[in-house]
Amino acid sequence: MTPKFQNTTHFKNFWKQGNGKELLDWAEIIPNFQTFQNYAPLYHQVDELGDEVVKETYLKLKYKEASALIQKYSTQPISENDNAPENVKKLFLELQEIPDWFDENLANKGARFCMRTGANGLMILRDFTLMGGYDFAYISKPLIFTEALKKGAVKRLKDTLEFWVNVTRENALKQNSEAYQLIVRTRLMHSYARLKITEKTENWDYENWGEPINSWDMIATYTGFSLVFMQGLKKLGIIISDEEEEGLFHLWKYIGYLLGIPFDYLPDNRQQAVEQFYWWTTIQDKGDDDSVQLAKALLKENLENTIYKHSFQRKILKNLHQSMNWFLLDEEINERLQIPKPAKAFLVFPNIVLRGNKIFQKIYLRNSTKYQKLVEMGDEQQRKVLVDYIKHTPNDFHY
C-alpha cells in the first residue's frame, strides 16, 4: 500500500489550512512516513476472533440459542471448565483478563471528563465527529452495504449514544457490567456485518476500501471519540487538563482493546493520535454521493425524531445543529456534504455556547468539589438525552 490522496486538493486543504492543520499545530509534529508503513497492514486486518465467535454462534445456531449463549457469558464469568464453543470460551476468557497496562484510575479521569462535558460533548459527537467523519468516503461504505440508511438515523444515533454514554461512565468497564455487555454486542455486530458483507457483496473494493470494518478504520473511529472529540470541545471553549487528556486516550485505548483492536496500535497521546490519523486520511477519498446521503439522513433525523412534539421545534433543532456544523467543520466539507447554511439568526448559537462555557468553567473549575458537581450535572444531562432517545426509538433489537 502507498498513500493515494496526499497530493489531492481536499487532503492539502484539510491538513494545510483546515481542521487538520489545527491538529498538527496542537500536536506539534511533522508526520513520519514510517508510521504509514507500520499501520498500513491494519487496513487489511480484522478482528478474527470476533468473526470466529459469530461463525460458531449466530451463523450456526438458531438466533435465540446464539443470543442466549452470548448473553450468558456477557452477564456472568466464564471458566476453562465451561462447556462453551471453543472460540466463545477463548473470547470471554480474554475479555475478563485485565491487561497489565490498564490503569483504572487513569481511565476514570477520562470518564469524568466525558461526563462533565454534558450537552457540549453530545453536540460535538454529533455535529463534528460523526458528521465530519462522513467526509471520509471509504470508512462509511459498510453503512451503505448493510443498508443502514433504510433503518433510519434515529436508531443509529440511539445505538451510538447508548454505547458512548455507558462506556464513558466512571468505573463502567467492570466485567459483566452493562458497558461490558454493550462492548461484546458491538464487537460481534461488527463481525456479523463484516461476514455478511463478504458473503453477499460482489463489488466490495478491497484494494481501496480495505477489509470491511478493518482495524485501521476502527482506530480512526475511536480517534474520533478521543482526539477529534477534544478538538471540537476546545472550539467550544472547553478547558482540558493534561490529566483529562491522558485519561481520555487511556479510556478509549482500553475500550478499543475490548473491541478487538490491536492495543499496541491505539494511541496513548495526541501526538500518536494525530500521526496515525494523518496517514489514515492519505487512503481516504473525499466525501461522495454516499457521504451526502448519510449527512442528509443525520440532518433529517431532527425532523423524524419525536422527542419534540411540534414540527417547529424540530426545525429549530435542525437549524441549531446546522449552525454547529458550519462553526466546527471546514467550509468545503459543509459544501461537499451539502449541509445547508442556516439563517443568520442561528449562526450566533455556537458563539453563545462558547461564551456560556467560559463563564460556567470559571465557576466550576475552581476546586475539586465544584468539579465533581460539574461532572454530576453533565452526567445527568447526557443520561436524560439517552433516556429520551430510548423512549422515542422503536425497540427492534432482540438480544
TrEMBL record:
Residues 151-344 form the ER-bound oxygenase mpaB/mpaB'/Rubber oxygenase catalytic domain. InterPro entries: Lcp-like, MPAB/Lcp_cat_dom. It comes from the Bacteria. GO terms for molecular function: oxidoreductase activity. Pfam families: MPAB_Lcp_cat. PANTHER family: ER-BOUND OXYGENASE MPAB_MPAB'_RUBBER OXYGENASE CATALYTIC DOMAIN-CONTAINING PROTEIN, SECRETED PROTEIN-RELATED. This is DUF2236 domain-containing protein. It comes from Kaistella flava. The lineage of its organism: Bacteria, Pseudomonadati, Bacteroidota, Flavobacteriia, Flavobacteriales.
